[in-house]
Design brief:
The complex is a heterotrimer of chains A (288), B (210) and C (295).
Chain A lengths: L2 H26 L9 H11 L6 E7 L5 H17 L3 E6 L6 H14 L8 E6 L4 H9 L1 H4 L27 E5 L3 H13 L3 E5 L1 H4 L4 H4 L6 E3 H12 L1 H10 L10 H31 L2
Parallel strand pairs in A: 1-2, 1-4, 2-3, 4-5, 5-6
Helix pairs in contact in A: 1-12, 3-4, 3-10, 5-7
Chain B lengths: L1 H24 L3 H39 L4 H17 L3 E2 L2 E2 L1 H20 L1 H12 L5 H16 L2 H4 L4 H10 L1 H25 L12
Antiparallel strand pairs in B: 1-2
Helix pairs in contact in B: 2-3, 3-4, 6-8, 8-9
Chain C lengths: L2 H7 L9 H19 L7 H39 L18 H11 L10 H33 L5 E2 L2 E2 L1 H20 L9 H42 L14 H20 L23
Antiparallel strand pairs in C: 1-2
Helix pairs in contact in C: 2-3, 2-7, 2-8, 4-5, 6-7
The chains are: A alpha/beta (288), B mainly alpha (210), C mainly alpha (295).
């Protein structure tokens, strides 16, 4: 076997192992109950502290590429918002491909809770320019978003009552897969003092811990693990139903057993890789 | 002509950098209005700049088809699908797409985008097996931290006594310290770049020849 | 509630929203998912086809989003209202309708002139505007948020009190954080030779950096695998002959399409293999064709 063929064989074996572990684990199913960590709980507490009927801004800055991580997170947050009768306003500054996804997630969740578009929630379109839309919305919301995504004028949306600029929102949750978080911290929090909670992909989670100590962000929900932790606080009914019916739906907690299996597999692969590496080194030294 | 090509853009950049920095220190209603107006302009211009990408893609694939470079058939696929998607967009709902364009988003763009990103799940496992070696003290430290974090993020690992609190400590102390220091570097770099723009030293945005 | 809002709440269903379109869509989604996964074997014509379809769809969609989200509401509609003000039945103006919009309209036009070589230099004005406004707004805010607020936290007394009592662990952690910041910064100071005390300090900084990178890697593994788990879940659901209420029935799409896709890859490889040569698949370069997204 040539070195190239051996390399390919190793690569394909690892791919096959990863695929097999995930498939088998998903077929076995199961739903975890993951207790929330302090940083995730802080976001929950901030939402919980809002008076009933308050507006809450959700910047849904992700597209289908990160849907697997962030949709369950958004569902879990929305569940809490509906329970507290908050007026949910959704916008996006991430990509032109984001509003469609945000719209479908919010509508599905709202429909399941009997919430009415326009009164209980509203969805706005994409704004380009990074920090520019945040700075402009901080001056005058209506000058930037004249209508919602469907073309309804802002003044006809009861959910927008009393909102004329960004600071009229007592809390903004930035659910993001891209660096728009930096814009929200700089333009939203530093410029206008907007209270900010983060829901981010796992890849980005470690980039924002330094803002926790300074209270520039109130908490961080990181990746599918953070989503699962949030679900344990807001979606107990859905978790119970998933355990009973074995229909997992889009619950992050239903993917956590598989996540456990693949993490352990990768750790074992790292250990095995190191054993083989050091054994090879020893053999190399022993041979003349 | 040289003034129009070089001096005017440098002056535009200089004016807006200086005016908006001054605006930060003078939060008068008039200056705030100026900020709002410029940002609204920026939203529109940046949006149109996105179309540059679409135009470049169109040009590049058209060129490949014209000179029939190897694989030009794929360019034909891209342009045909692009054309079909544009056609689908003529059916709209208010200020948002509906009908066939929404269908295209849901059943073509969305699954393909998610699949493209998910491919990395296989490659990261392969890379971990083939390249993640405890060759030195530093590499061992990196490896050990990664293992603790991987365990702490799943219920199975978090059930091991001490893993959760060790992970919280790693994220709250050494990670916070390192990220804060790195952020200082990035922030200082950004300030230096802004100064270069103000003084006209940074001209890369004018194009390669300047 | 306005009429437009009512209309939005109950849009008339079209063929594209019906069950047949959803089932067809699901088969296409499963097919493209499998086609993209063939890259794991190696770069092949089926993967390339799916990849180019993806690029075409993405850009076509982006074009329309640009129209719906900005060009139409921010430029076309305001100018149309402003122009028609002189007519016999002028439409009501929005508060933000203003001839000042000519500035971004011109800058947008200049931007697009990049495709016309004789006037492409005008796009520099637009780029200068974007660079100027971005730098001008973000620099003071960066100094405030990323330097002053973070430094002021570091300058606080490291003695931590919890519930009024001195906290040993809290204080130790505050001191360690301070040590971490100083040592990591020292590591990046290259104008001083790293020897003696500076070397020790910089090496300590490396320890903090390695722990940070390790944490980042751990989280990255979680992120990448969670995306993969969701896609495999999608394929498993697509292999079923039934679906939960309200969702389209996949009619065993994965089971039917998987052998077809695998067969097609091998057939195309066989056809493209040079006659008489040994052939064999080329090793895929990891990540060479895949995007490298942050999230």
């Amino acid at each position: 076997m040539t070195p190239e063929a051996r390399k390919n064989a190793v690569r394909w074996s690892v791919f096959a192992l990863v695929g097999a572990v995930i498939t088998v684990s998903l077929l076995f199913g199961g739903v975890s109950d993951f207790h929330p960590t302090a940083v995730v709980r802080k976001v929950y507490d901030e939402v919980e502290a809002l008076p009933d009927g308050s507006p809450i801004l959700i910047s849904s800055d992700f597209d289908p590429g990160s849907e697997a991580e962030l949709k369950p997170m958004m569902d879990a947050v929305l569940e809490q918002c509906w329970r507290k009768n908050l007026r949910v306003i959704v916008m996006t500054i991430c990509s032109p491909n984001s509003p469609e996804l945000a719209d479908s997630i919010v509508r599905a969740s709202a429909d399941a809770h009997g919430k009415v578009y326009g009164t209980d929630y509203a969805v706005f379109g994409y704004l380009a320019g990074g920090s520019a839309p945040i700075l402009a919305l901080g001056q005058d919301w209506h000058a930037v978003y004249k209508t919602d995504r469907g073309g309804t004028p802002c003044r006809d949306l009861p959910a927008m009552k009393g909102i004329s600029k960004l600071t009229d929102f007592p809390l903004c949750l930035e659910i993001s897969a891209v660096s728009t978080i930096d814009y929200w911290i700089l333009a939203g929090n530093a410029k206008y003092g907007l209270k900010l909670g983060l829901g981010v992909t796992a890849v980005m989670a470690t980039d924002y811990y330094q803002y926790l100590a300074t209270r520039q962000v109130v908490g961080i929900i990181g990746g599918v693990s953070g989503a699962s932790q949030y679900e344990s606080m807001t979606r107990q009914d859905a978790l119970r139903k998933a355990r009973e019916t074995k229909e997992a739906g889009d619950l992050a907690s239903a993917r956590m057993p598989t996540q456990s299996a693949i993490h352990v597999t990768i750790i074992l692969l790292v250990v095995l890789g190191n054993i083989l590496y050091f054994a090879g080194k020893r053999k190399e030294k022993a041979s003349p | 002509m040289l003034h129009l090509k070089r001096t005017v853009p440098l002056a535009i950049a200089f004016f807006f950098v200086v005016a908006l920095i001054l605006q930060y220190f003078v939060p008068h209603p008039l200056s705030e209005k100026f900020l709002g107006m410029t940002q609204k302009w920026a939203i529109i211009v940046v949006y149109v700049s996105l179309l540059l990408g679409v135009g470049s893609l169109f040009q590049s694939h058209l060129r490949k088809i014209r000179v029939q470079t190897p694989g030009w058939g794929y360019s034909l696929v891209t342009l045909s699908v692009f054309g079909l998607t544009v056609l689908a967009g003529f059916h709209s709902r208010g200020n948002s797409p509906g009908g066939p364009l929404q269908w295209t988003y849901e059943f073509a763009y969305s699954p393909m985008s998610a699949t493209m990103f998910s491919l990395l799940g296989f490659f990261i496992a392969s890379a971990a097996f083939r390249a993640f070696r405890a060759r030195s003290v530093e590499a061992t430290l990196l490896l050990a931290t990664a293992v603790v974090i991987m365990l702490a993020q799943v219920p199975l690992g978090a059930a091991i006594p001490g893993v959760g609190s060790l992970s919280a400590w790693i994220l709250g102390v050494p990670l916070t310290a390192a990220k804060r220091a790195l952020m200082f570097g990035v922030a200082l770099g950004s300030i230096a770049t802004a100064l270069r723009i103000i003084f006209g030293i940074e001209r890369s945005y004018l194009g390669g020849t300047e | 509630m306005s009429l437009s809002l009512l209309a939005q709440a109950a849009p008339p269903p079209t063929w594209w929203e019906g069950n047949a379109a959803s089932v067809l869509g699901l088969w296409i989604a499963v097919g493209f998912t499998l086609a993209l996964y063939t890259f794991l074997y190696h770069d092949n014509p089926l993967f390339k086809f799916a990849e180019h379809v993806y690029v075409g769809v993405t850009n076509g969609y982006l074009l329309w989003q640009a129209w719906y989200s900005s060009v139409k509401p921010d430029l076309v509609q305001p100018f149309s209202r402003l122009v028609r003000q002189a007519s016999s039945a002028p439409p009501p103006l929005e508060p933000s309708d203003s001839w000042w919009l000519l500035v971004p309209a011109l800058l947008s036009l200049f931007m697009l002139l990049r495709f016309y070589p004789k006037a492409s230099w005008l796009s520099r004005w637009s780029f200068a505007f974007i660079v100027g406004t971005t730098a001008g707004t973000l620099i003071p805010l960066t100094i405030q948020a990323q330097l002053f607020e973070q430094i002021s936290k570091m300058l606080e007394s490291p003695v931590v009190r919890e519930a009024g009592a001195f906290s040993f662990t809290g204080t130790l952690n505050a001191l360690l954080t301070l040590l971490g910041v100083v040592t990591v910064l020292t590591y990046f100071v290259f104008s001083v030779e790293h020897k003696g005390a500076v070397r020790v300090t910089a090496r300590t900084g490396v320890v903090f950096l390695m722990i940070a990178f390790g944490a980042h890697f751990g989280y990255t593994v979680m992120g990448r695998e969670s995306l993969l788990i969701r896609r495999i879940q999608f394929l498993i659901d697509g292999a079923k002959g039934s679906a939960p209420e309200g969702q389209p029935n996949p009619h065993y799409a994965t089971l039917v399409l998987l052998p077809l896709v695998v067969g097609l890859v091998f057939a195309l490889e066989f056809l493209s293999r040079p006659r008489g040569g040994k052939g064999g698949p080329e090793a895929p370069q990891e990540g060479s064709q895949t995007p490298a997204p942050r999230g």
